[in-house]
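I hope you will forgive my troubling you with a question about protein structure. The full record is reproduced below for your convenience:

——
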Amino acid sequence: MNREQIVEQLKNNVCEVTFTKVNGDKRVMPCTLREDMLPPVIKEDVNADRKVNEKTVSVWVTDANGWRSFRVDSVLDIKVLTD
């Protein structure tokens, strides 16, 4: 799966993403990019000059209620949990 496909899945669903962390550990993370599940945006937090890193995806982790990211090339599996 490429980055665009991963982001599209996450915008429409809560997914369980399994990936290998930088330190080699395996991580299973329930996450989403569904707008109705994301926290409100605070204007001071928005940086219009920030470039998108095409090698990573930032997601809202549903069990930790926080933002995390993973490298696209480290993804082992993605399962849809809810839509």
Observations:
- The chain is about 10% helix and 40% strand.
- The domain at 3-37+53-82 is CATH 2.30.30.520 (SH3 type barrels.).
